[in-house]
């Protein structure tokens, strides 16, 4: 009985630790390539399927708080990945963050990724930089208000061809999911597309996936 109680206690402790790890992102180095973000996370989210790694991408609006505050809410530091629902045709060059500053679009890129079954997934990436008021101008407004870069970047990924994730007879939805990566401007990640290999996740991803399989 004592051994059973000890096992139960240990199991509960492991579950709490894993929950904390997933919320903070500190238990594994989640640094996906663009192909991995689109194919293993954004496309499954749009199709209503589970992602490659559960809990790695959170549902939160990057415009709901300053980037450092947003990451701090989830125990993150350098970067975080988020799903947010956007309305059709709501392409913006500026996204305001109440009381903090604004994301200003700096570049747009088109790309495509290919699934293991040969499905071509076309996507776009909009890059934003975060700007805050100059010291002493926090309460000002208008054209005379000067802004400075805060050293944070927002990358919004969206799939531009709905045919790769829904049937042709399905009606177009008013809102759809996009995937956002929020990071410090100096954090460009350590993995490139060539280093990612033939569609295989890094070893640290595999460890998390093995835990999930063993618990089922």
UniProtKB/TrEMBL annotation:
<protein>
    <recommendedName>
        <fullName>NAC domain-containing protein</fullName>
    </recommendedName>
</protein>
<feature type="region of interest" description="Disordered">
    <location>
        <begin position="1"/>
        <end position="25"/>
    </location>
</feature>
<dbReference type="InterPro" id="IPR003441">
    <property type="entry name" value="NAC-dom"/>
</dbReference>
<feature type="region of interest" description="Disordered">
    <location>
        <begin position="187"/>
        <end position="216"/>
    </location>
</feature>
<keyword id="KW-0238">DNA-binding</keyword>
<feature type="domain" description="NAC">
    <location>
        <begin position="24"/>
        <end position="185"/>
    </location>
</feature>
<keyword id="KW-0539">Nucleus</keyword>
<dbReference type="GO" id="GO:0003677">
    <property type="term" value="F:DNA binding"/>
</dbReference>
<dbReference type="InterPro" id="IPR036093">
    <property type="entry name" value="NAC_dom_sf"/>
</dbReference>
<dbReference type="GO" id="GO:0006355">
    <property type="term" value="P:regulation of DNA-templated transcription"/>
</dbReference>
<keyword id="KW-0804">Transcription</keyword>
<keyword id="KW-0805">Transcription regulation</keyword>
<dbReference type="Pfam" id="PF02365">
    <property type="entry name" value="NAM"/>
</dbReference>
